[in-house]
C-alpha cells in the first residue's frame, strides 16, 4: 500500500460543455474504455450533477452522479492519473456524499470493475459495502468484465 501525499483542498464547480476537452483528455488516459464526449454532453444537458475538481486552478478530476427518490447513483468519479495517490479521489468522493445529503439521499450506489483495486480500496475505506454484481457489465480487450455494486448509507 502506497502512502497518500497530503494535498490542499480541492475547489469544485459545475461542469460546463467548455470543460469537455479537459474531461476527455483525463477520461481517455484514465480508462481503457472511456466514456464518449457525447455521454458527458448528455449528462450535462440532462441536468445530472456534474462536478469538476480543481486545485489552485489546475484541472484535477470530475464526478457525475444522479439523485432520485432518496438514492444517489455515482456514475463516474475520475482523478487525472498523473495526480492520483494524493487524496484527491477521497476529497471528491466526500464532495459527492455531501451533495447527495443536500438532496436528501439516504444511500449511494456505484459500480466498479473488480480489477480496479485502488477504487475498491477507496470505497471500502469510506464505508461502502458490496451488495451485488452486474454480470458482463464492462467491456474488456477480451470480452466483458462483471461490475461489483457497492452501496453506502448516507
Structural summary, described in words:
By secondary structure, the chain is an alpha+beta fold. It has a single domain, classed as Aminopeptidase. 29% of the residues lie in helices and 39% in strands. It contains four helices and seven strands, in the order E-H-H-E-E-E-H-E-H-E-E. It has a seven-stranded mixed beta sheet with strand order 1-2-3-4-5-7-6, with helices on both faces. Mean pLDDT is 94; it is low at 1-5.
Give the CATH class.
Alpha Beta
Span of the ends, CA to CA:
27 Å
CATH superfamily: Gcn5-related N-acetyltransferase (GNAT)
Largest sheet: 7 strands, mixed
Radius of gyration: 15 Å
The total of beta strands comes to 7
Architecture, CATH level 2?
3-Layer(aba) Sandwich
Strand order of the largest sheet: 1-2-3-4-5-7-6
Low-confidence stretches: 1-5
- What CATH calls the topology is Aminopeptidase
Task: Identify the overall geometry.
Answer: globular
Helicity, in percent?
25-40%
Query: Helical stretch count?
Result: 4
Which labels suit this protein?
single chain, 154 residues, alpha+beta, Aminopeptidase, 4 helices, 7 strands, 39% strand, disordered N terminus
Task: Sum this structure up briefly.
The protein has 154 residues and is an alpha+beta fold. Helices cover 29% and strands 39% of the residues.
What's the structural blueprint in terms of helices and strands?
Elements: E1 11-14, H1 20-30, H2 37-45, E2 49-55, E3 58-68, E4 71-79, H3 88-102, E5 107-112, H4 117-125, E6 129-140, E7 143-153
